[in-house]
Amino acid sequence: MALSKPTMSGIFDDGAIAQTTHAEGEIRYVGSREYGQVLVTKHPEGERLTPERSLTIARHSPGGFAVGYRGSGPAQLALAILLDYTDNASLARDHYQTFTDEVISQLEYGADGTWTITDADIEQALPDDVALPA
């Protein structure tokens, strides 16, 4: 599955800064690394996503999230994102392994040191018959 990329605008020359634009109302999970930990922020709210809530469903990685491979940290992140996005523990539990394989394990940090998952990426990875939040 190819992850959607943000639309970039701006002039690219020495010293110029590109500006990332997103669709209004779009939900995004943006990850970065700080002191060896993967930090995830949900936008547009700016809330930090933590493993705590997802750990009540499955305890893959109490120490935190990871991306870019198939393992316990990526599985915990996949579960946390699906649980947060859908607010449905059963749905998250049923689909997080596939979401880990198809999305989280494929993530790479960009030149700006972040990665982004959009609501469209999440919905594309879930089966068509899954009822998602309005």
Main attributes of the structure:
two-stranded antiparallel sheet, 134 residues, disordered N terminus, alpha+beta
Can you offer a commentary on this structure?
The chain has 134 residues and is an alpha+beta fold. The protein has one domain. It is built from 4 helices and 6 strands. It has helices at 52-55, 72-86, 89-102, 119-125; strands at residues 7-9, 19-21, 28-34, 37-43, 47-49, 114-118. The protein has a 4-stranded antiparallel sheet. Strands 1-2 form a two-stranded antiparallel ribbon. Helix 2 crosses helix 3 (89-102). The chain is globular. Mean pLDDT is 84; it is low at 1-22.
Give the topology, please.
Layout: E1 7-9, E2 19-21, E3 28-34, E4 37-43, E5 47-49, H1 52-55, H2 72-86, H3 89-102, E6 114-118, H4 119-125
Antiparallel strand pairs: 1-2, 3-4, 3-6, 4-5
Helix pairs in contact: 2-3
Quick description:
30% of the residues lie in helices and 21% in strands. The chain is an alpha+beta fold and 134 residues long.
Q: In what range is the share of β-strand residues?
A: 15-25%
Give helix and strand order, one letter per element, not per position. EEEEEHHHEH
Number of strands: 6
Radius of gyration: 15 Å
Identify the strand order in the major beta sheet. Answer: 5-4-3-6
Uncertain residue ranges = 1-22
| Residues in helices, as a percent range | 25-40%
Total number of domains: 1
Shape: globular
Largest sheet: 4 strands, antiparallel
Structural class: alpha+beta
Quaternary organization:
single chain
Count of helical regions:
4
Mean pLDDT: 84
How far from one another are the termini? 23 Å
